């Protein structure tokens, strides 16, 4: 009976920690941060943004801001009146849902600067047939980022297994 309780505890720990372990923090612009005259679309290319990841916008407070906008706001460099700008200089935005996401700086977007558009993918992509094409992704089509996510998953499983063994060895 007691061993069943421990198994449930271990399963609960895995369920709670797995998404945060697989998450990645992306500092927008890397070491450059959120600044003028930087190609953020080029920065985003090749990156695998997933639900659970976080975007971090670092910039001098008061010099810039971050607004989360829709496609129209992105194209026109405007935000609806109910959008509150982020202004801390270290703004962290969790990516909570898949889909297209748009970010602008209200001070500099109109000059063609400080705009970021990304596509957020689901947390885990299952290697099953695509409903539209029936094709199964090949091993060569997986990105390096998904390989990292798998490695993190296995590392977590090994830690959980070790924790599980320590509990039952006592």
Automatic annotation (TrEMBL):
Pfam families in UniProt: Cu_bind_like
Organism: Camellia sinensis var. sinensis
Annotated SUPFAM superfamilies: Cupredoxins
Name of this protein: Phytocyanin domain-containing protein
Membrane topology: Single-pass type I membrane protein
Iron-sulfur in keyword set: no
Any single GO BP term: response to symbiotic fungus
Gene3D superfamilies noted in UniProt: Cupredoxins - blue copper proteins
GO terms assigned for molecular function: electron transfer activity; metal ion binding
Keyword annotations: Copper, Disulfide bond, Electron transport, Glycoprotein, Membrane, Metal-binding, Signal, Transmembrane, Transmembrane helix, Transport
Ranges of residues in domain Phytocyanin: 24-122
Predominant localisation class: membrane
Taxonomic classification: Eukaryota, Viridiplantae, Streptophyta, Embryophyta, Tracheophyta
Residues of the signal peptide: 1-23
Entry's localization field: Membrane
Ranges that cross the membrane: 153-169
Entry's Gene Ontology cellular component terms: plasma membrane
């Amino acid at each position: 009976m007691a061993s069943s309780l421990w198994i449930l505890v271990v399963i609960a720990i895995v369920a709670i920690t797995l998404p945060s372990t697989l998450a990645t923090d992306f500092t927008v612009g890397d070491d450059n941060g959120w600044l003028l005259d930087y190609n953020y679309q080029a920065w985003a290319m090749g990156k695998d943004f997933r639900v659970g990841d976080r975007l971090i916008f670092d910039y001098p407070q008061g010099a810039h801001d971050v607004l989360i906008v829709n496609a129209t706001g992105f194209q026109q460099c405007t935000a609806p009146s109910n959008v509150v700008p982020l202004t801390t200089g270290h703004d962290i935005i969790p990516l909570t849902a898949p889909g297209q996401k748009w970010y602008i700086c209200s001070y500099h977007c109109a000059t063609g600067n400080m705009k970021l558009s990304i596509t957020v993918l689901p947390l885990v992509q299952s290697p099953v047939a695509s409903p539209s094409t029936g094709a199964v992704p090949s091993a060569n089509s997986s990105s390096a980022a998904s390989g990292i996510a798998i490695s993190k998953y296995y590392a977590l499983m090994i830690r959980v297994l070790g924790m599980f063994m320590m509990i039952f060895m006592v």
